[in-house]
């Protein structure tokens, strides 16, 4: 397209209120050249000397955690943030000194393996991010190479000042200034879904001075200088100027095209790069990938600190006793412990220097008791988390067939956090919704048409046991046929196929459908091959309206500067006829007006005002004559809203020519005003004409939720999880989707905090920005205070409140002196919806909730505008949708649909939390049990520093003989099945309340370890200290006692594991019993090695232990006595105070899982008094029914299912 083939001219001046490129300089433009506005861009000459001296960065972007240079120091820092690793490093260094009670290699090797495995895992995870970065940075775009020649260049090689050509449906590779486009008016359509979450297209227009650069060859001699603001994070503002020759032109956001937005409905555009890479606004809105650690991991560190403190205390106490006994070894020249030869010994046991010996013993003891702290804990957790992530990735119930997207755990550090989520902060567009609107119902002349069923209605029907779905089953085939038309899901044989002509009021239906086909700003595109008309609209609901009109016989097919042409179904002849309507004015939609109108003349010369808008502003503008069907229409609108549909009321009236001329004069004058109150004057003129309307009816459009969203939100609400929605959409859109997904419901009081109050609008006329800011902040604080008062009043009633706040108000609510008040109000509300939120505000809200509440936060989104939020939250979930991968690249876990969040949290989250918690508790139990046998033996041996066990017994305890069963526990154990996790959602609260990893539970396991160690040591010593073991009659020595104690420890901790497991697989059996068998095999093999290597283990099993019946009897007796206290406690706890998961286990084990009454009894404890979701809607509706039918108030209890 080197020649830049031009499309036919579209005249938008009548349709859109856009800049013509002749704007005068505003106040902010005089800041250019000052602080914060110093950027200079040499257009079409990025290699010039002046540009090189400015040193602007390249366009390469990365989302990785490490670089080649930072990997080693940063990853080592990550590893040694863990206090246990620091401790083992110190022990490894000291092991090379004579102080060490064991060999250096047996200490260093486990530490190297642990650190190496963990760093290897970090490399693999960061390489995945790197591959995503490579894919993005290697995308290609056409760049001007000189002499009017454009050629493809990789995104990463773009430089500031380069002129590029972006073609239809391509993403912008950097922040650009629009120079020209394929349209004569130099306009282009831009989709910003990845930036602000909005699906409606934005219209941009180049300066008139550059609009003639329409071909590649036009850029041979093009030179210009842009002076503008420095890189910043504000997506919605831009200040700059273009110096072209001797002329200076102001640049505004109207000319700014942002990276990661997409060119739509435009063949191509030319633009100049002004911000690249990390200077672009979308990257400025993101933050560096944080190093996230779970709450359980942080608590594990505290336990390690506690164990280390206990270890130091034991070492200190032992050293004191050692020093005292050593100093007493020689008294009055007599040796009390002569067999130690205190008169001929090293400094470590010298009675003359007992104080120094005690200090040195302290260091030895600190090393010896290192087995209190499990060196393999962290690496075992890493292995378990990776395997848990594999199960998440391979879960078929979280696989989305349509997009071929499975769930992907991009990092495994946060698996257990999935089971502790307290608050979910969700984006709306593309996360809760499918980015599409569907026309589904309408009401005309008091009659409702359309038999479609919404997701909300289906879920409500399932809750109530209604046969709704079965009744609709016969129409499934028709539904599939209709749903193939994007934006249209209307089914009603009374209207389709031209049957509306037989309805009671076909004249009103005709006017209704005609209004849908005319009152809009969409553009038609005709496929030359098929002749099919498609539409590009500024919003998806507007597209749905014109598509519905087309499907029902009123096809909009052409727009010119002054006319709109339709193919209409003539009710008299039954044939399609072409009619043209002269377009006189467009009265645009705004959030304050909540309506739009067009004024046209038909072929008979009649002046018609056609209006559509929100019911809150339309019904009050009806004339008495035009209100014939208002009550029925209101009833239908309420019914549609209850079904989660977005409604719009349609009305019209004929205008007298004098009235129109008077309006047009005032309207045109107001539009041409350049004063601060221009918009207000325009609205006043529009207000005068939009009155005395005649009601036609109402439309119902489904803001299409993703499948299963209402059910998912309902289940998460039953699990006690709070849900906030943070969206860049308008407030009206966000409220509608809140109703659709049951975060809001009819009758729920709404606290709306809006910056557009009358006081603020009055201040805006004065143009004093500081006064406006002060007034806006005061207004926001006042609204927050009023909301808090309403919240305090409602605390005495069961009614729930919803908080809805816009982006400008949110900016003030997040100020230091206001954010605590805002959070207090928000936490007390059942639903929170933040509208018009910028990416940075989303991140700030997430941080506020995370820091101030202390609960685990989960953020979920699909666009680049959600990246900051995902990174700020404890857990970031990216939706791998149809457009863009920015959210996925910055997320911790990626899923294809919001509904998969239910299984991810309630099933995998609960399992991972339980597994990791039980695993860590068990780890500390087995190490305390092992460590205390060392301590007891130390005391038994006068704190001499002599270990009870062989060096390699010590090293292999955590690495081989007890490591695999605990890994199997962390990967495979299930307290309840996935089906029961979903059936009893309150089970999830075990993680939110952290009942399985509370300090009470941790200390209970530690006490269990002390009890086991006490039984092992004292029973072994008392039973064996006088026993003869060898054929020569030698009594038990260190070798036999150590082997026997170690055997008992291995049996006890592995059998304790068997008692703790709820869900046995053959892998658990293999690891538990295999670990015990492996110990005996090792004892045989190691004992057969040369005594210089095996030392105290030489032939100990074959010659001493195995032949003795005492060895086997002691093992059995110690095993039973050590496990008996735990068994008694577990039986008592299960019988008299069972935990919630144990109650569910009863259902499973007693065979009552299919008994509805028995399940209902237990489920009642799982159903919290929720305030959002379908459960809350059902309860609310039943309460209403009880109030209206007092005689039946006890027939059905609220909350029953």
Automatic annotation (TrEMBL):
CDD domains: P-type_ATPase_APLT_Dnf-like (cd02073). The active site is at 427 (4-aspartylphosphate intermediate). One of its GO terms (biological process) is phospholipid translocation. Its EC number is 7.6.2.1. It is found in: Membrane. PANTHER family: PHOSPHOLIPID-TRANSPORTING ATPASE, PROBABLE PHOSPHOLIPID-TRANSPORTING ATPASE. This is Phospholipid-transporting ATPase. The lineage of its organism: Eukaryota, Viridiplantae, Streptophyta, Embryophyta, Tracheophyta.
């Amino acid at each position: 397209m080197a020649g830049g083939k031009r499309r036919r001219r579209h005249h938008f001046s009548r349709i859109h209120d856009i800049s013509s490129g002749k704007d005068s300089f505003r106040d902010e433009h005089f800041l250019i050249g000052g602080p914060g506005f110093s950027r200079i861009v040499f257009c079409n000459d990025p290699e010039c000397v002046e540009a090189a001296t400015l040193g602007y960065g390249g366009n390469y972007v990365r989302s990785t955690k490490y670089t080649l240079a930072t990997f080693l120091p940063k990853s080592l820092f990550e590893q040694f943030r863990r206090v246990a690793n620091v401790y083992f490093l110190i022990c490894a260094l000291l092991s090379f000194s004579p102080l060490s009670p064991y060999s250096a290699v047996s200490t260093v090797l486990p530490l190297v393996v642990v650190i190496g495995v963990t760093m290897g895992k970090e490399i693999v995870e960061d390489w995945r991010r790197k591959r995503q970065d490579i894919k993005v940075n290697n995308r290609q775009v056409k760049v001007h190479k000189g002499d009017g020649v454009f050629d493809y260049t990789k995104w990463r090689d773009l430089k500031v000042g380069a002129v590029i050509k972006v073609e239809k449906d391509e993403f912008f590779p950097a922040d650009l200034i629009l120079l020209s486009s394929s349209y004569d008016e130099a306009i282009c359509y831009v989709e910003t879904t990845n930036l602000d979450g909005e699906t409606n297209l934005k219209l941009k227009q180049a300066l008139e001075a550059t609009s003639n650069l329409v071909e590649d060859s036009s850029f041979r001699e093009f030179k210009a200088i842009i002076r503008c603001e420095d890189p910043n994070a504000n997506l919605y503002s831009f200040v700059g100027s273009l110096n072209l020759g001797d002329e200076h032109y102001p640049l505004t956001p109207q000319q700014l095209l942002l990276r990661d937005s997409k060119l739509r409905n435009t063949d191509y555009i030319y633009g100049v790069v002004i911000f690249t890479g990390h200077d672009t606004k979308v990257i400025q809105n993101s933050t560096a990938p944080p190093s996230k650690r779970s709450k359980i991991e942080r608590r594990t560190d505290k336990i390690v600190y506690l164990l280390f403190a206990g270890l130091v205390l034991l070492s200190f106490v032992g050293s004191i006793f050692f020093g005292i006994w050593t100093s007493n070894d020689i008294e009055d020249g007599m040796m009390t412990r002569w067999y130690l030869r205190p008169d001929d010994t090293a400094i470590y046991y010298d009675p003359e220097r007992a104080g120094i010996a005690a200090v040195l013993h302290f260091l030895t003891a600190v090393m010896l008791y290192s087995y209190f702290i499990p060196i393999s804990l962290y690496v075992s957790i890493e292995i378990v988390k990776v395997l848990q992530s594999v199960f998440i990735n391979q879960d078929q119930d979280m696989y989305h067939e349509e997009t071929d997207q499975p769930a992907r755990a991009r990092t495994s550090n946060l698996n257990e956090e999935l089971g502790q989520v307290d608050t979910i902060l969700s984006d709306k567009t593309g996360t809760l919704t499918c980015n599409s609107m569907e026309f589904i119902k309408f009401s005309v002349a008091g009659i409702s048409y359309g038999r479609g069923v919404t997701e909300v209605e289906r879920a409500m029907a399932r809750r109530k046991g209604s046969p709704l779905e079965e009744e609709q089953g016969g129409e499934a085939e028709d539904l599939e046929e209709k749903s193939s038309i994007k934006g249209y899901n209307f089914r009603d044989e009374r209207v389709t196929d031209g049957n509306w002509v037989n309805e009671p009021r076909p004249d009103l239906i005709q006017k209704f459908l005609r209004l849908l086909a005319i009152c809009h700003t969409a553009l038609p595109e005709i496929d030359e091959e098929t002749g099919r008309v498609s539409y590009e609209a500024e919003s998806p609901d507007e597209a749905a309206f014109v598509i519905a009109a087309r499907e029902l016989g009123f096809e909009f097919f052409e727009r010119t500067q002054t006319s709109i042409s339709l193919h209409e179904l003539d009710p008299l002849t039954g044939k399609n006829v072409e009619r043209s309507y002269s377009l006189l004015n467009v009265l645009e939609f705004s959030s304050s007006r909540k309506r739009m109108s067009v004024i046209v003349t038909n072929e008979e010369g009649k002046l018609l005002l056609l209006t559509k808008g929100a019911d809150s502003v339309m019904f009050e503008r009806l004339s008495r004559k035009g209100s014939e069907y208002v009550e029925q229409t209101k009833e239908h609108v309420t019914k549609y809203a209850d079904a989660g549909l977005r409604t719009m009321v349609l009305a019209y009236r004929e205008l007298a020519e004098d009235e129109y001329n008077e309006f047009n004069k005032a309207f045109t004058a107001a539009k041409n005003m350049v004063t601060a109150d221009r918009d207000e004057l325009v609205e006043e003129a529009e207000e005068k004409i939009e009155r005395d309307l005649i009601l036609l009816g109402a439309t119902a459009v489904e803001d299409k939720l993703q499948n299963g969203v209402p059910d998912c939100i309902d289940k998460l609400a039953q699990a006690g999880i709070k849900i906030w929605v943070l969206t860049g959409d308008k407030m009206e859109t966000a409220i509608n989707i809140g109703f659709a997904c049951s975060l809001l419901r009819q009758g729920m009081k709404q606290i709306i905090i809006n910056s557009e109050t009358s006081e603020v609008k009055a201040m805006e006329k004065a143009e004093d920005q500081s006064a406006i800011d002060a007034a806006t902040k005061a207004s926001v604080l006042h609204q927050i205070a009023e909301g808090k008062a309403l919240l305090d009043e409602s605390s005495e009633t069961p009614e729930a409140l919803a908080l809805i706040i816009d982006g400008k108000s949110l900016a003030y609510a997040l100020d230091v002196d206001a954010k605590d008040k805002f959070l207090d109000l928000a936490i007390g509300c059942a639903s929170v919806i933040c509208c018009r939120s910028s990416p940075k505000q989303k991140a700030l809200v997430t941080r506020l909730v995370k820091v101030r509440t202390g609960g685990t936060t989960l953020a979920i989104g699909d666009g680049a505008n959600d990246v900051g939020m995902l990174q700020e939250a404890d857990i970031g979930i990216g939706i791998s949708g149809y457009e863009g991968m920015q959210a996925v690249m910055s997320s911790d876990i990626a899923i294809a649909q919001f509904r998969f969040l239910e299984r991810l949290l309630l099933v995998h989250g609960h399992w991972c939390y339980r597994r990791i918690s039980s695993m860590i508790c068990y780890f500390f139990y087995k190490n305390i049990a092992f460590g205390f046998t060392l301590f007891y033996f130390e005391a038994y041996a006068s704190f001499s520093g002599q270990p009870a066990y062989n060096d390699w017994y010590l090293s292999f305890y955590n690495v081989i003989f007890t490591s695999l069963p605990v890994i199997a526990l962390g990967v495979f154990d299930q307290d309840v099945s996935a089906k029961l996790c979903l059936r009893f959602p309150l089970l999830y609260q075990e993680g939110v309340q952290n009942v399985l990893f509370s300090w009470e539970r941790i200390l209970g396991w530690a006490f269990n370890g002390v009890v086991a160690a006490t039984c092992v040591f004292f029973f072994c010593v008392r039973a064996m200290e006088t026993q003869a073991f060898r054929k020569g009659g030698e009594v038990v020595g260190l070798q036999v006692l150590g082997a026997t104690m170690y055997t008992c420890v291995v049996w006890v901790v592995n059998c304790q594991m068997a008692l703790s497991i709820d869900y046995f697989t053959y892998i658990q059996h293999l690891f538990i019993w295999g670990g015990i068998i492996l110990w005996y095999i090792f004892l045989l093999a190691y004992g057969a090695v040369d005594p210089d290597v095996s030392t105290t283990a030489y032939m100990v099993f074959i010659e001493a232990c195995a032949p003795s019946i005492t060895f086997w009897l002691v093992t059995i007796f110690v095993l039973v006595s050590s496990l008996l206290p735990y068994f008694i406690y577990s039986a008592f706890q299960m019988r008299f105070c069972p935990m919630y998961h144990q109650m569910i286990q009863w259902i499973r084990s007693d065979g009552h899982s299919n008994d509805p009454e028995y399940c209902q009894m237990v489920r009642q404890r799982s159903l919290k008094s929720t305030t959002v979701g379908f459960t809350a809607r059902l309860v609310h509706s039943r309460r209403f029914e009880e109030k209206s039918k007092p005689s039946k108030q006890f027939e059905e209890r609220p909350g029953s299912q």
